[in-house]
Structure formats: structure tokens, C-alpha cells
Amino acid sequence: MGYKTDIEIAQENRMEPVREIAESLGIDDGYIEEYGKYKAKIDYRLISDMKNRKDGRLVLVTAITPTPAGEGKTTTSIGLADGLRHIGKKSALALREPSLGPVFGIKGGAAGGGYAQVVPMEDINLHFTGDFHAIGAANNLLAAMLDNHIYQGNSLGIDVKRVTWKRAVDMNDRQLRSIVDGLGKRTDGVPREDGFEITVASEIMAVLCLANDLHDLKERLARIIVAYRHDGTPVTCGDLKAQGAMAALLKDALKPNLVQTLEHTPAFVHGGPFANIAHGCNSVMATRMALKLSEYTVTEAGFGADLGAEKFMDIKCRMAGLKPDCVVVVATVRALKMHGGLPKTELSHEDLEALERGLPNLLQHVENMTSVYGIPAVVAVNAFPTDTEAEQKLLMDKCAERGIKAVLSTVWADGGEGGAELAREVVRLCEQPSELHFAYDEDMSIEEKIDAIARRIYHAEGADLTPAARTAASELAKLGFSHMPICMAKTQYSFSDDPTLLGAPEGFRITVRDLRVKAGAGFIVAYTGDILTMPGLPKVPAAENIDVTDDGRIMGLF
User: Fold this and answer.
1) Pick the catalytic residue: 412, 481, 495, 508?
2) Average pLDDT across the chain, whole number
3) Distance between CA atoms of 19 and 29, rounded to whole angstroms?
4) What is Dmax (Cα atoms) for the chain?
5) Rounded-to-integer distance, Cα 240 and Cα 328, Å
6) Quick one: pLDDT band at residue 1, thresholds 50, 70, 90?
7) In this model, does residue 108 exceed pLDDT 50?
8) Is 523 a residue of the active site?
9) Positive or negative, the Cα torsion across 238, 240, 244, 247?
10) How far is CA 382 from the centre of its chain?
């Protein structure tokens, strides 16, 4: 008999009404806005009403550099939260929402896997409570008002060659990366080059995830730069008087979403920026809400620790005044063997030499967390049926040689029980005193911050800015933006900006080809390599295997 699929496991699960999940956290009925029986939004006023309540512990789950073999970061996060409950702790999750692009593209669903999932899995992966649609609508309202202003006389003096605001859609669609719009009659608009980003790359996604409240949301929206005048001065959303209407569209999207795991652990699933093109963390409001309501909040950051965890620390924690008490670095034997040069077709066979060659990738990520950021860390070895005892022992022994504890996690197969040992180690580490340090200081120059990330986190020999990037850095400094943190747009498949350099490469340099300020979000994006803000679908999209039966049962999500 084969394994049950993720969607089969989720559909067989008996969920509790979301009001009961909210009640388990002590949320008063007046803050709950139900979206059906098993989903709810929680009024953000709850955070300010609990401002005198002490925060619980914050646990960040991150991972090694991702490979096609899979790592299981979200699955581990969910299983750890269930595991904490299994050992008698009051826990909650703070996760990102899936984007429709990857769901229908390569990745499939992003609600965990096996017996460590958040449910209702189909709803979470498809539309959920409509947050991404609201973000897309707000993004495109701003685009429409910008082009309308140009058409109606352009009193702000916008240089149509320097419009930086793009339209957005939550789908992988390479056809929309570069377009020309405004074609047709004179009354059809002003022709110009334009393009689309996937919704998760929109600055509005970052703004919503970093906003402290509705007032802060509107102020951040007003600061968004949409274009530049001929004299080089920026034109903002506030100049177009668009922030009020955009905030109206985002008013409900700003409220964190509450769902549950298969074991009924509360889960706040809210916001979804990618970590390779944005800052890769769920919303500040959801994290804060979970911290006020639980003893332990488990959150995750996208892709490997060089991307998601770096941005969690240097952007989210810096802006929101948060501090993780412990970091969990997820690894699999399979993925580490790929980092050791083993092809995907050979991963089911024991290969201790390939595993040992790949281990430096894991060790570098862990040491970044402990040595650069000063936060205690544990390795979660996400078990696969093809792992051998010798491989798992080698991984754990090599970690122990570096003073790092590695714990076997079987949450995919066993749910919270399979995460109990990891939960006990997390509780132990959270009791250790620690002080968060950042990879760079705010008062460093833009170039110095990028170089610090390259050297301290990627272990590169430094960073090089192209002439265009140097010009952009100079202009941004003159405009007063040099104090902002850096958001690196970089391949997720390597510490370097070359996706083919696996493991822990040495002797390389990072090349930054462009810099753009996200004044509303409050950071500067540094673009490296061939990173795109609008992905494309693969030759065989996951969408080809997704269907719905005559009685409304969704099939093919994974």
C-alpha cells in the first residue's frame, strides 16, 4: 500500500471550528471575524489591547540552501509547534500564505506535508481569505492612478521613461514581464514600456507585512516611490493621493488569518513575500499577535538561512524590535548529498562521502546564526524513508564535533509526536541568554552593507557593484535612503549569485547589477544574477494535475 498524499491526509482530518481554536488562545469573541467554519480573521486591535501582556518565546525555523531533493521547512515548523503542544507547552504558528504562482507552477502547495499540515489545506493554497487579491487590487489601483495622472496632463512632471511602478498578478506568467501598454487611440492612454510583477514581489506585500497598524500602513503606502521627474526627484503614492483608497482595499487584508494544524494547534497564516526577491517573512502583526497569545511562537523565513533568516534578522527584527530566542536549521540527508555532488537520481542510495562533502553547507548556515547573529541554534534532521542509519549518524556526529546538536525529526510521518524531541531541545535553547546582533550597522553606506552581507553571510570575498548599481547607490544616498537595510535579490540555490555553485563555495564575489529603493517597505533591494520578479511556468506545470470532482472535492494539490 502506498503513502497517502498530503491532500488525502488533510481531507480525512476532522477540523475543530475556528472559534474553538481562537478560544484555546483566549481570544475574545468580539475580535473574531469568521470566513466560513474553519478560517477567521482576527481584529488587529487585539494587539494594542494586549500591549501590557508579556511576549512568549520566538522560534525561527530556517534551512540549508534548497535543492530539488526538498528540505521541509514549513513541515518542520508545523510539526515543531505540534511537538511543543505534545510536551505540554502552549504554542502557536506564524507562517506565510502560499502564492498561486508556485501552487500551479513547480512547488505545489505550501501548507506543510504528511501529518504536519495547516488546514483547510485547499483553502489556504487557493485564494484563502482573499488577501493576495486585495494586495493585487491595491497595487493595480496605484498603477491606474499613475497612468491616469500622466494622461490627464502630468502636472507632477513625471518622466515616462522613469516610471518604476509595475502592475501585479498572483500567477507565474513570463509573457507579462515586459509589455507595451497605452496603445490604440489617443484616448487609450500614453504609450510606454511597462511590465508585471508577481503579487508577492509587489512592494505592497512588503508594506502590509511590515506595517504595525492601519495608520502605519497608510504612511508606508504614501511613501512608495512610483516614478521620477526629469530632475531626478521621486514621485510618491502620496503625491498621487492614492494611499487612502489603497488602505480601504487593504483594511481587512491587514488582519491576521487564524487556522489550525491537523492537531489543532493555532496557526496565524498571513502575508507571503518570497525570500529571493523580497524579505521572505510573514506579517509583523501576525507574529506579534502569536507572541502575545502563546508561550512559544514558531515562525519560518523563506528559502535558505542566507536569504530568509538574514532578512528576518536584519530587516524584520530590526524594524519591529523582535528577537528570536532560538533558531532551528532544517536539513535532509538527501539535500546534503546533492550539495555533495550526487545527482537527484542517486539520492536513494547510501553515500557517506557525498553526504560529508555536502555538510559544509549546513554548518555554514548554523554558524551564521550563532556567530553572526548570536542566537542559539539546533539542527532538525528531517527524516526521509531512504535515509540510512549510517547517514543520519554521520550527520549528527559531524554537527556534534562543532558543538551543534542535531535532532531527528519525523513530523511528516508522525506529526507532533515526531517533533517532541526537537521541541524539548528548542525549549532548552530558549532558556539560554542571548543577544541579537545584526550583520551590519544602520549607519554604514549602502555599499558597505552589501559587502558585509556578502562577506559575513555568504562567505564571499566581497561584493562588486556594476557602474549602473554604483550610480544608483549614489543617487539613493543623495535622496537620503542610505540608512535603510538591504534586501538582497539573489538565487536561492547557492550562497553565491551563481545557482550552480552548491555546498559552501569559496573564492567567489557577489555582483550587484541594480539597486532600487522600496521607500514604503523601508529597504533597498539589491539585484544580483538573473533574479526575476515575475516567474514563469515550467514545461509541465503542477496545474496540469490539479482538478475538482463533480462533488467539489479538489484533487492533485500536494
Assistant:
1) 412
2) 95
3) 8
4) 72
5) 44
6) very low
7) yes
8) no
9) negative
10) 20
Residue 224 is classified by DSSP as -
Under a CB-based contact definition with an 8 Å cutoff, are residues 454 and 510 in contact?
Answer: yes
Which residue in 196, 384, 481, 508 is the catalytic one? 384
The amino acid occupying position 490 is K
Of 104, 128, 268, 303, which residue is the catalytic one? 303
**Rounded to 5 degrees, what are φ and ψ at 499?**
-65, -15
Bridging pattern class, strands 225-229 and 158-163: antiparallel
Q: Say whether 274 is catalytic.
A: no
**Which residue among the candidates 85, 96, 167, 311 is catalytic per the annotation?**
96
Q: Cell triple for residue 214?
A: 492601519
Residue 73 annotated as catalytic: yes
Active-site annotation holds for 384: yes
List the catalytic residue out of 65, 67, 75, 261.
Answer: 75
Query: Rounded to an integer, what distance in angstroms lies between the CA atom of residue 90 and that of residue 266?
Result: 10
Residue with cell 505545489: 108
pLDDT digits (tens, 9 = 90+) for 341-361: 999 899 999 999 999 999 999
Q: Is the pTM of this model over 0.85?
A: yes
Rounded distance between C-alpha atoms, residue 96 and residue 27, angstroms: 21
Distances (CA, A) of 88 to 84, 170, 385: 7, 39, 28
Res 107: pLDDT: 65
Please work out, in degrees rounded to the nearest 5, the angle formed at the alpha carbon of residue 513 by the alpha carbons of 512 and 519: 85
Question: 158 forms bridges with which residues in the sheet?
Answer: 229
Task: Determine phi and psi for 168, rounding to 5 degrees.
Answer: -140, 145
User: How far apart are the C-alpha atoms of 524 and 127, rounded to whole Å?
Assistant: 30
**Residue 165 is a catalytic residue:** no
Q: Which of 22, 110, 137, 275 is catalytic?
A: 275
Residue 472 vs residues 197, 444, 515: alpha-carbon distances, Å: 21, 16, 6
Catalytic pick from 90, 107, 323, 470?
A: 107
323 is annotated as an active-site residue:
no
d(CA 369, CA 352): 26
Task: Give the residue from 541, 486, 441 showing the smallest Cα distance to 101.
Answer: 541
Active site residue 167: no
303 in catalytic set: yes
- Nearest Cα neighbor of 475 from 441, 514, 522 is 514
Task: Let me know: does 243 contact 125? Beta carbons within 8 Å.
Answer: no
